[in-house]
Amino acid sequence: MSTAELQSADPVTHDVPELVVGFDLDMTLIDSRPGIQAVWDLLVAETGVPIDTDLVVSRLGPPLTWEMANWFPADQVDAMVSRYREVYPAHAITGSLPLPGVAESLAAVRALRGRTVVVSAKYTPSVKLHLDHLRLDVDEPVGDLHGAEKGTALREHQATIYVGDHTADIDGAKAAGAVAVSVATGPFSADELRAYGADVVLNDLTEFPAWLDAYVLEQRLEALMARLSGYEKLVVAFSGGADSAFLLAAAARAIGPANVVAATAVSPSLPVAELEPAARFADSLGVRHVTPHTHEMDREGYQANAGDRCYFCKAELVETLQPIADEFGIEAIATGTNADDAIAGFRPGIRAAFERGAITPLRDARLTKAQIREASRGWGLETSDKPAAACLSSRIAYGIRITPNLLVRVDRAEQAVRDLLTPYGVQNVRVRDLGESASIEIDADLLSRVDLAALVDAVRAQGFTAAAVDPRGFRSGSMNERLANPDRYR
C-alpha cells in the first residue's frame, strides 16, 4: 500500500479551548482622544453648539448616541451621529495612536497560537479604519456593541479572555464567561476596575504579555497533567530532546515514575552523543529506560528518502514500541509532538504515529515549543535549553538514498564542527549532505565571529569533496526548502 493510500485525516482533539483574546479598542488598544476631539470640534464649528469636547473624550466607552444625546435634542441625534461618522475618517484616524504595549500584546497572542478579536462600541467601519491605519494584527473586528452586548460577539468568536479599560468591558467579559482583564488606561482607576469585578487589573498593556504567558502556560500545564493522570501506565517515545524529556518528566509527576517507561530507539539515525544523556536523564527521574533497536533502514520508503521519509521512520518506531508496551501491560504510547509541530505543515511522521494509535499529550494541551522550554526551566530540567536535534537522516538531501555510511559521515562532520565552535557557546549545528558536497549551518550570530575556512576543512576531512557555510545560518527544516513538491507529502 502506498503512502498516499495510507493517509488519513488526523482529527485534532485538544484538552483546552483555542486561545482567543478579545480587546476593546478606544483607550485599550489606541488613544483615540485626539482624533475624536477633532471630530467633535468640527461639529461645534458647524453647529455652534457649545460642546465641552474635553469632557467628551474623558469618558469614552459608551455608544456614540448616548454622548450625542447630551448635547443635541433627541430629534437631532440621529442626524448628528450620521454627520459624525461621515467626517470621522478624514479627521479622527490619523490622529489616533497605539497605546504602549499594543504590538507586543498582539504578538504574544500569536506566539501562543491564538487568535484576536476587537469588540468595540465604535462604528464597525471606523474600527476597521483604525486597525488598518495602525497595521494592528487583529483577526476579526466587531463594532456597535456595548457593555454586556459585547458578550454576544465574544461568545460567537469563542473568546476566553477580554481586555478593556471600562467597567462596561467587564460586563461584556462576564456575559461571555471570559476572563475580564482590565487596563487602567481609560476613565477608571485600577482600584475602581478591581472593585467593579475585574478578574485581573493591569496598569497598561505593557504588562499584558507576561500575564498572558503565565496564565496560558498554567492552563495548558493543568490540561496536560489531567490528561496524563488518566493513564495508569505509559510508554514515552523518548529521543532525549527537550519535548520528549519534558513529556517524560510530566508523566512521571502525573502517575509516578514506576508507571512510566522511557523508550529511546537506537539506530544509525540517532547521533551517538544522544544516547548517554538520555539514559542519565531517565535515571534522574527514576523511570525505567529501555533502548530497543529500530530498523527503519530496512524499509524501502525510508531508504528512498523522498519527502515522506519521516512517515516510515515513525511507523517503525511506534511498531517497535508496541510490543514493549504490551510486555509491561501499558495501554498507551506517547510521543513528544508539540503544538508547533502540528501546524508546521510538513510532518508526515505525525500522521504515521497517529495511524498507529500513539497519543500526543503536549499537542493536545496546545503546548508550544517555547512553553515547553519555559516549563522545563521552571521544573529545573537540564533539557530546557537543549538545541533541537533531529535525526541524522534529516541532514541527507531528499532523493539521495540513505545508507549507514552517509549517516556516520554526517554525524562525524557535525561533531567536528561542534568541537571547533564549543568555545563560542554554539547551540545549533547542521551539516547538510547534498551528495558529494555539504552545506554547513551554524547559529547566525556566529557567522562573523568564527573561522569559516576551518569549519569547511573539518567537514571535508570527513569525506566531502566540497563544503560551504550557509550565509543564512541555521534554519530548522531547511532541507524542505529543496523539495520540489512538498504539498504531496503534507
From TrEMBL:
InterPro entries xref list: HAD-like_sf, HAD_sf, LarE, Ni-pincer_cofactor_biosynth, PGP-like_dom2, Rossmann-like_a/b/a_fold
Q: Which GO terms describe its molecular function?
A: sulfurtransferase activity
User: What are the protein's UniProt keywords?
Assistant: Transferase
UniProt cross-references to CDD domains, sorted A to Z: LarE-like
Does the entry feature the keyword Cell membrane, yes or no?
Answer: no
Q: Which PANTHER family match?
A: EXSB FAMILY PROTEIN (PTHR43169), NAD_GMP SYNTHASE DOMAIN-CONTAINING PROTEIN (PTHR43169:SF2)
Q: Which NCBIfam families match?
A: ATP-dependent sacrificial sulfur transferase LarE (TIGR00268)
Protein name per the record: ATP-dependent sacrificial sulfur transferase LarE
